Amino acid sequence: MTVGTDAEAAPRPPLALELLVHGVGGTTPERMLDDPRTVCLAGDDTAGVHRRACDADAEEHPEQHREAPVPEAYCWSNLTSGNGSRALWLLLLPFMVANLAHWMRPPSHRRTLSRGYGAAVRLLALTLTVLLVAAACEVALDLVGWQCAGSPRCVRGSSWLGFAAAGSGGWWSEPGRRLALAALVPAALTALLWWLSHRTWSAYESQRPAPGAAAGPGTPSLALPGFWYGRRSVARLRAAHTAAGLLTVAAAVTVPALRHDHGGASVPLRALGWALAGLICCLALAAVAVTCRAARSEAGLDDATDHRSSRALLAASAAALAAAACYAAWHRPAWTATGRLPTAQAFIVLTVLQGALIAALALLAALLYRSPPPESVPAQADTDTGAGQGDPGEPPRPVALSGLAGPAVGLLACGLGGVLTGGVAQRAADWLDRGRTPGEAGSPLAGPPAVLTWEASVIPLVLALLAVAGAAVAWRLHGRERALCGEVEAAYPDEQHRPARTRQIAAAVARARLTDSAPLLVAVVCAAAFVLGAAAVTGALTGGGTPGDRAADAPAAVSAAARAAQALGSWLVGAGVVALVALGRRAYRDPAARRTVGILWDVGTFWPRAAHPFAPPCYAERAVPDLSWRMESWTARTGGRIILSGHSQGSVLSAAAVWQLDPATRGRVALLTYGCPLTRLYGRWFPAYFGQQPLDGLHHDMHAWRNLWRRTDPIGGPVGIRGTAGEGGVDRGPLLDPAAYGRSVSHPLPEPVRGHSDFQADPAFARERAALLARLLPAGGKALPAQGISGRSSG
Q1: What's the pTM?
Q2: Is the pLDDT higher at 557 or at 200?
């Protein structure tokens, strides 16, 4: 009886939890937990926390789980995948790339420069929205409503345009009325973008983060309570971009009618046109002002809304568009459609404006990069080596393109937008002209603006440059494989080496190192895009014609090459759009294809929509609050310990979630990362958020962190944080991969090169997990000794 009483009075042992977070490829709870029977403890079909059925009530029986932590899986793959219709988000790739440029600013304490950088990126993103809507106006208003419907030869083979054909005598046969009708297409596109942005924000990004710790001086950005909650800024940007799109359509309808009326219409009609043009300009300036002021407020949860001002701007823009349609539809019996719309020159203005914004962005980024960085966390010297966090003798980690990654990526976004709009316009003109080349003798169409034709024509040259760069990379890769063979054989000293096996392992290591060459490749592509884009604008401004027109008087070979480039460019863009959608659909259905394209996609959609509200939704604004809420609520309820185990992109989500925790909860959480791109990818391209000082600060705040890495991993790598006195560094590796060179008693079958996957199969994983668990605070609040933490892992 006494024994039973003592047993009942004894305190329950603290429960340990291993919260698993998968990476880019996505997986199922059954695969993560290695059990066919799982239950969902919290969440929904989009993202949820799962356990094995036998562990569902582990909190009620902690004494049964003393030997190992209870595994629990957080599955978030449906935030970025799902049905195949989401592949259409790939068509908004320029918006996503522009949004990335916002987060690539160099770290600096100069707030004025940082605000200017953010405003420049937002304005650049606004020009991309205007470019997309202007391209829709070019196709619907200019090519279809103005040129084709105004030409009897073009309408003859298009029965669907017969009701609006010039000279048919119908109500829609007047040019202004055709423009008003065609304006429904770009207006509907703008409304669709607004609806998608509003719907996806409500579904994915409206989750409130955990309370966390109060923000103070020197708090890292990712630890701010409002970092993952940009409600007001997204609402402001959505209103400004939607208004800009509607005003672009209104201007495309108003300017042709105003130009006609300027020649001899009645005074009241001219006055109405000028007043409408003035209203459009004022509203456009208001949209620009809202964009400049739509900076994120991350120090707290910004729940304030600007419904009144946002609705006023949207209502005024919609009213301006309706008034413009009515003004253009006014009866003008002497008006005929000839040539191109006068608004075609707007594409040159947009291209030049984007170039100016890129130049300003590059100047701001250079000033930020050269300014003193923000103060780092206090250094803790290692008495054995004389080094520590923030050690002056430790070389700084590399930053992509010397701080110019943001402007380079912004230029890439503009290049993608220009190529896509130019190619789509050229392809639409070719389709309407039924095989003839628009603008040439015998063609009923003048074709798209010359600058769009030039942009489409440079695509074959860009692809040729990429092919040359690819060949150079392949040659370099071959040489690197041969140089690594000696290192591979040295890693397996007691094996009988075979050339084929050695080359296989060396090739895996060489391919993994290609990731480190990405900045150089981006620099080459951006430089080529800038030169070719400038050449396209120059060609359109100086000659006004297409490449084929400019080369008409040149030798026959040059003229044929110019015309072939013009035709091939338009076909390549059309094929590229189809291939992009097909690749996106395959990526959502085929895990292997998803791993291939999912790297860029998941990096791009990890960041909140701070520059472009029409970019694909940010899954981290749902996943990070999910993880932080789960850890804080579970530790508060049970007093237990958590191993937060993140693979690949899951390690980035895990680190972001740990930043959001309050100090008491963080003391009960250990971080185990593997295949981790925090330094290799995020630290290099996003140094203000994952650079040396933020990661050193995270390690300083939580201590219990280990990172496993392999040389054969093309994505993950070492974090590069050195340890303090009595403690090893964060990194454990490189782990030996493959685990065995050839067959042996312990490895009777050939061991594969695992690269980025299956880290749990390495014996070091279990050892480091147990050592991390030993460092956490148990229920009594006294730290346990770090058993095995400083030991060297396998490989």
Answers
A1: 0.88
A2: 200
